[in-house]
Design a protein that fits this description.
By secondary structure, this protein is mainly β. The chain contains six helices and 26 strands. Strand 8 and strand 9 form a beta hairpin.
Length: 386
């Protein structure tokens, strides 16, 4: 069994990381959209909003601190000629993921030179594609200094690009084809309500496959995403700073309300602290208890440190408690799995944590078990006293 522990050391690291851790016809949908049902009307019946920014520092956010900072009580992304962004980069919210939600914030975007170019956006239900460089892909509530894109729905780094231009009511059907089924007004009319180089209010609402954007109280897009192969029902929240000429984008009053479904924030809070492994199972065989005792994982926000046989490995993770079983993706920064993306399932309580992990390149487990030659690792933890 000592040989097995050595052979599966990388798997144990990955698992320790983990510790840180309807169908409606097109015609019917067109009728609903034609009725201009707006979820804003239901806001008073929902839970209170959660503040995402403390107004002082970037606690709860992760990004390139050479480009992101807090100025005048606002989250500020800024590029200059001497300090450009090498590619689109993101400030990622680390205190949970979003599924069905309403997000409210205020934004201001200002070009930094005579090119008059500045672009940003709010990523939601998105994926972290490159954690080392803070690269995110998925749904984006777009904003710019120009006259065209503020308020649109753009799919960053995915296949569909502009999913809805400003003023469009859209259905992406089951064949992943775009159909424009109505109008919210002309792009020019909606642009007239946006204040140039000044503060504007953005509201994003996602409920099921229905996505809505509002700026200064005017709805800019309405999208029903029936493309199951490409849509996202949950994921990370992030703010974009676009590559290109110098620019400044600022955000304040960021507030989030969960509309329904399983909240990730509760599990994130449960995961915080230190966890001591109590049992380890690899390929259907239990490892000696003394080997399990050498694994301790510390979770802080959405990052972890795994101490394994006196070696310390670090990384980040995301969770999706809306899935059954609940899912976790781990992004190790160091150790045998550094630079990889690892898949797992988890369950967490006040004092216990259980994680089943599959090696990189294999399918995510569907139950908490391992079998011979499966390559899977199952670790049970108990909370370590402070």
């Amino acid at each position: 069994m000592k040989t097995n522990l050595k052979h599966f050391n990388a798997i144990i690291v990955g698992a320790a990381l983990l510790a840180q851790m309807q169908d409606v016809s097109l015609a019917q949908q067109k009728e609903v959209l034609a009725g201009q049902t707006i979820l804003l009307d239901d806001r008073a019946s929902q839970k209170s909003f959660q503040n995402l920014f403390n107004g002082k520092d970037l606690t709860g956010w992760d990004g390139n601190t050479k480009l992101w900072s807090v100025k005048d009580g606002t989250i500020t992304g800024q590029t200059t000629t001497k300090n450009p962004a090498k590619g689109n980069t993101f400030l990622i919210w680390t205190n949970g993921t979003v599924s069905d939600f309403e997000l409210r914030c205020s934004f201001k975007i200002v070009p930094g030179d005579t090119n008059h170019f500045a672009n940003s956006g709010i990523q939601y239900r998105s994926k972290i594609l490159d954690p080392d460089n803070w690269v995110v892909g998925g749904y984006q509530a777009d904003m710019e200094a120009g006259q065209t894109y503020t308020g649109i729905l753009y799919e960053e780094r995915m296949k569909r690009g502009i999913m809805a231009a400003r003023g469009e009511k859209v259905i992406w059907d089951k064949d992943c084809k775009k159909q424009v089924v109505g109008s919210l007004g002309s792009s020019e009319e909606l642009q007239a309500a946006i204040k140039k180089e000044d503060w504007n209010d953005y509201v994003v609402i996602a409920k099921g496959n229905h996505l809505q954007h509002f700026i200064n109280g005017k709805q800019t897009v309405d999208v029903t995403d029936d493309c199951e192969a490409q849509r996202a029902m949950s994921g990370v929240l992030a703010l974009q700073l676009h590559a290109g000429p110098p620019m400044t984008v600022q955000f304040k009053n960021l507030r989030l309300k969960e509309l329904s479904g399983q909240s990730s924030s509760a599990d994130i809070q449960q995961l915080q602290g230190q966890w001591q492994a109590t049992s380890v199972e690899v390929n259907g065989a239990a490892l000696p208890s003394e080997d399990a005792a050498n694994i301790v994982v510390t979770v802080k926000e959405m990052a972890y440190t795994a101490l394994i046989n006196e070696r310390s490995d670090e990384g980040k993770f995301t969770i999706d408690p809306s899935k059954q079983p609940k899912q976790m993706d781990i992004h190790p920064d160091s150790g045998p799995d550094g630079g990889k993306r690892l898949s797992a399932i988890y369950e967490v309580g006040p004092e216990t944590l259980r994680v089943c992990y599959a090696p990189d390149g294999t399918e995510r487990p569907t139950d908490f078990s391992t079998t011979e030659n499966s390559g899977r690792l199952l670790i049970t933890y108990k909370r370590k006293a402070p």
